[in-house]
């Protein structure tokens, strides 16, 4: 994983949390010093070329987040996951197995030693 990927994966969450809480001022321009600060927080070294790429990527991501903030969600029920189904269990009807009596199983086993069933050795 490259430094820019590590930076994005490890500290983007903090950036988005700040965005969600309104702590990121939308009028603030993201600068290289912000990338330096994120790299320091993530304890990674990042080259100048990677800083440019990360800065460009973050600006694109933040621009997209801003577009999402402007989407009209009035009347949309909030969800925490992909489904509202909770603990969907099937009924046991038609799926219940009738246990085979132990005597019938013992009689069907190929090798026996008294009451014990003989199986091939696992460890030689």
What is the fold's blueprint, element by element?
Blueprint: H1 3-20, H2 32-42, H3 48-69, H4 102-108, E1 112-113, E2 116-117
Antiparallel strand pairs: 1-2
Task: Report on this structure.
It is built from four helices and two strands, in the order H-H-H-H-E-E. It has 124 residues and is mainly alpha-helical. Helix 1 crosses helix 2 and helix 1 runs parallel beside helix 3.
Quote the distance from N terminus to C terminus: 45 Å
**Overall 3D geometry?**
elongated
Strand content: under 5%
Number of strands: 2
Pick out the low-confidence regions.
Answer: none
**Range of helix content:** 40-55%
Mean pLDDT: 77
Query: Can you write the helix and strand succession as a string?
Result: HHHHEE
Q: Please tally the helical runs, counting DSSP H or I stretches of 4 or more residues.
A: 4
What is the radius of gyration computed over CA atoms, rounded to a whole number of angstroms?
30 Å
Structural class: mainly alpha
How can the largest sheet be summarized? Answer: 2 strands, antiparallel
List the strand order in the largest sheet: 1-2
Q: Notable features of this structure?
A:
single chain, 2 strands, 4 helices, mainly alpha, 124 residues, two-stranded antiparallel sheet
At a glance:
This protein is mostly helical. The chain has four helices and two strands. It has helices spanning 3-20, 32-42, 48-69, 102-108; strands at residues 112-113, 116-117.
């Amino acid at each position: 994983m490259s430094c820019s990927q590590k930076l994005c994966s490890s500290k983007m969450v903090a950036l988005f949390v700040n965005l969600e809480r309104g702590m990121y001022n939308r009028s603030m321009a993201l600068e290289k010093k912000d990338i330096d600060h994120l790299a320091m927080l993530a304890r990674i070294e990042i080259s100048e070329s990677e800083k440019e790429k990360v800065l460009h990527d973050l600006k694109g991501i933040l621009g997209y987040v801003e577009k999402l903030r402007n989407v009209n969600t009035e009347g949309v029920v909030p969800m925490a996951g992909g489904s509202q189904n909770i603990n969907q269990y099937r009924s046991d009807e038609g799926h219940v197995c009738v246990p085979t009596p132990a005597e019938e199983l013992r009689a069907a086993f190929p090798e026996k030693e008294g009451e014990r069933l003989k199986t091939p050795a696992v460890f030689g």
